[in-house]
């Protein structure tokens, strides 16, 4: 199991297996789990509460996650006489953008962790703490279903509760059925494994070192984007994460931007004809391929970036906290940045319109 509760974008849900009525919520302790909050942050952030919950019965208890002065995230957990407080510094953002905060704990190991990351997973700052007191299952349910006891900042896109230590760092971004070109034809990305090969336009046939997968709430920066055919050479619609980037080249790119190729984030195409957010999903499972040189894969006729890991293999802590924690280190490559220009929303729409003309 993993996700047990979520709230955001007009949705509210608790896992029926976890909260099936047979469990005494006020007597059940959650000694291991994560709370994930997605919000917006910028250079002018002032101290404010992101999420807070407090109760007085059967004893004083509560949870609070806040933005502190000086660029820090604070976490406070109270269970009766036991009070846990911790803070994690992070580098202020240069512009207003989405930020994901993950607070994880494992009381049996005496472990706590606060991670602050951008949705791309390429910028992650992690602070290790002691463990908070175990949380009541009732409190975690109340975060979603007892809204009169909860205060949520308007900039919070969603929050979700998991009974696992959620990974941070590079994230997968393709839905299971996205077709990826291999030497024997197109295959769903979810079918590919270590040892398989894929065809690329830049490096020919390359081996798959690993496939990462993760189930997440279909909210905020996890909400899938439908890339519509025939834009950008797509032969069929595909569903991807908002941060998935297309690699686009051609004479029009060189004419408009003065470059051989550019990167186009899927979210930058939303609100035009080329892409739209996919509604109606509660959870979504993403997949992505780890390739030796971060080569773009050919998916349904267009190039999409594969998983970028930078120099993650050199950093034992972040590697251990990521989806690659079980991959032998000798199979984790080092990737250098392509240096390609990343288009903003207006530039991406301009390019899409030029190709549709």
Care to describe what's here?
InterPro entries: Hedgehog/Intein_dom. It comes from Pelagimonas varians. Residues 174-310 form the Hedgehog/Intein (Hint) domain. This is Hedgehog/Intein (Hint) domain-containing protein. Pfam families: Hint_2. The structure is a single chain. This protein has 357 residues and is mainly β. It folds into 2 domains: 3-162, Jelly Rolls; 174-356, Endonuclease - Pi-scei, Chain A, domain 1, CATH 2.170.16.10. It has 4 helices and 29 strands. A 7-stranded antiparallel β-sheet has the order 2-1-14-4-9-10-11, with helices on one face. It has a 5-stranded antiparallel β-sheet with strand order 8-7-6-5-13, with helices on one face.
